[in-house]
Amino acid sequence: MKKNINAVYEPAQPVAARKLVPAYEQIKRYVIEHIANGTWKTGEMIPSETELVKEFGVARMTVSRALRELTAERVLTRAQGLGTFVAPRDVESTVLDIRNIADEVAARGHRYSAQVLTLEACHDPQAFDALTVRKGPVFHSQIVHHEEGVPIQYEDRYVNPLVFPNYLEQDFTAETPNRYMVRLAPIQYAKFRIYAQRPDAHVRRHLAMEIGEPCLMMWRHTWIGELVATSVRLWHPASRFHLAGSV
């Protein structure tokens, strides 16, 4: 039987990024932070719309939108005449869909954009090991993905040129690597791991993070036939992290 899960963790974000975030999104992250740190537990009532309006100094429609979206995302549940409550959470899933981040952002009704930092052929032994090839060059890209102008993911990817020979010729501000590769050759098999890590200065700077703020980093290998097609590390600031999957 198929079931969907949502695992969300979004503590308070750094000031530099928060200034770029719409008010309703700040309220959503405030609610999620209080659920994630255990302040509001499953089944408990959260503050009313009136209380949140006073606390944030925004219009009621702004608060209403935040709560409506959190209800649609199954973070909250609303009972007419009673209030809004923390929804039950199913976090037993261990299988993730490989989803295109641009589609995820668009599904939330937000604007997606990308900044390509690196798009090159490389001879890095680490890349050869990741792709299980004996010699290069292989392809390397580094891209920062944004939602409403706020960086939400740093992508560091190695690509097997035997599978995607025209990779370096693509415009990845117009189409993500994920969409490009799936369009040409649908992924047949994948392995992934998720780690909690502190990013280096380069990643931290491009994600507008504060020193000491942790990231959740997903490492993923994908295969097409017998070949490792791509190896990617995806860095997500813990303060702007949203993970969804299904089993």
Task: Present the secondary structure layout.
Layout: E1 4-9, H1 15-18, H2 23-36, H3 49-56, H4 60-72, E2 76-79, E3 83-86, H5 101-107, E4 112-122, H6 125-131, E5 138-147, E6 150-159, H7 177-184, E7 189-197, H8 201-206, E8 215-224, E9 227-237, E10 241-246
Antiparallel strand pairs: 1-10, 2-3, 4-5, 5-6, 6-9, 7-8, 8-9
Helix pairs in contact: 2-4, 3-4
Walk me through this protein's architecture.
GO terms for molecular function: DNA binding; DNA-binding transcription factor activity. The protein has 8 helices and 10 strands. The chain has a 6-stranded antiparallel β-sheet with strand order 4-5-6-9-8-7. A two-stranded antiparallel sheet has the order 1-10. Residues about 1-20 and about 90-95 have low confidence and may be disordered. Strand 5 (about 140-145) and strand 6 (about 150-160) form a beta hairpin. The chain folds into 2 domains: about 5-85, Winged helix-like DNA-binding domain superfamily/Winged helix DNA-binding domain (Arc Repressor Mutant, subunit A, Orthogonal Bundle); about 100-245, Chorismate lyase-like (Chorismate lyase, 3-Layer(aba) Sandwich). The protein has helices at about 15-20, 25-35, 50-55, 60-70, 100-105, 125-130, 175-185, 200-205; strands at about 5-10, 75-80, 85, 110-120, 140-145, 150-160, 190-195, 215-225, 225-235, 240-245.
Main traits of this protein?
247 residues, alpha+beta, Arc Repressor Mutant, subunit A, Chorismate lyase, 2 domains, 6-stranded antiparallel sheet, two-stranded antiparallel ribbon, 33% strand, elongated, Histidine utilization repressor, transcription regulation, UTRA, transcription
